[in-house]
Amino acid sequence: MDLPVMPPVKPMLAKPVAKIPPGMQYEAKWDGFRAIVFRDGDDIEIGSRTGKPLTRYFPELVEALRERLPERCVMDGEIVIARDGHLDFDALTERIHPAASRVATLAERTPASFVAFDLLALADASLLATPMAERRAHLEAALSKVTPPVHVAPATTDAEVARHWFEQFEGAGLDGVIAKPLDLLYRQDERVMFKVKHERTADCVVAGYRFHKSGPVVGSLLLGLYDDAGALQHVGVAAAFSMKRRAELVEELEPLRMESAAAHPWAAWADEAAHETARLPGAPSRWSGKKDLSWVPVRPERVCEVAYDHMEGGRRFRHTARFRTWRPDRAPESCTYAQLEEPVRYSLTDVLGPPR
Length: 356
What we know:
Layout: E1 13-16, E2 25-28, E3 33-40, E4 43-47, H1 59-68, E5 72-80, E6 82-83, E7 86-87, H2 89-93, H3 100-109, E8 113-122, E9 125-126, H4 132-142, E10 150-152, E11 155-156, H5 159-168, E12 177-180, E13 191-196, E14 200-212, E15 215-226, E16 232-239, H6 243-253, E17 296-308, E18 311-312, E19 316-317, E20 321-326, H7 348-352
Parallel strand pairs: 1-13, 8-10, 16-20
Antiparallel strand pairs: 2-11, 2-12, 3-4, 3-5, 5-8, 6-7, 8-9, 12-13, 14-15, 14-17, 15-16, 17-20, 18-19
Domain DNA ligase ATP-dependent C-terminal: 216-330
GO molecular function, one term: DNA ligase (ATP) activity
Family: Belongs to the ATP-dependent DNA ligase family.
């Protein structure tokens, strides 16, 4: 490749804020893999957020990008997979597989799309030092006739429209709004944009914890919710405690600590087959690699309130939850999926528009 912006590029990032800030450009926050796409003639490279290549995992997308992007360009966007008009992050993670045959099968079964929202280079010109509003105009012109599976992310400068998107688009699997200053230059790996995400609370059973990498203090709390059949399902973790609080949590949970997980609701956590029918901690995955997934079981008798942004597939917290407080007034059996707020369903077609 011989482009004015060459790989690897680390994408520009966003920092969280509580409210949608005024006077900016607004876009939906996509729940996929952030990707920088480089095209130089027939050569296509897709770089991840960390700069590592994603190209081999999305062969169907490589061909689509080759057919639809300008001859020489660099674009920032998101790789997503949609099922039944809704983003499916689990299907996306399945694509990161070492076997080429499996990748090819999934490329046919769950084809990916690319949603472009920034243009970093076009032909021989680098746009990194071009204000965001001008980059957006170049992007829209370059992809004015693009067809699926390549899309241009909807954008607006109307804060009221952005608030409507924030309320409506979650039902299609999007998880908030991104705000970009109109004069913002492209600053790699810096948090200079703003993101507004949904935040809700839930009461969860604390059924175990993992030690912190620094020593015998709590790294994360393992959270559970009861399903309709009365089974305790692992829904995620709460983390990000101060070191003092990590030590305190070990002491607070010590009376509930179990010698082994044999009598625990998640006793089968180390059995790979058991993960096919239940949500258990320590599920083997390509992401965990050789990471130590062991945990300390505690009797599932304490309830805590956590804050979360949204659920993945209605089954687990998409991101790490944030511990709020203990809830001694709540019985563990009352912590069910029924308490969770369900976003109103919304079609992804209504976000991206119908195919041209």
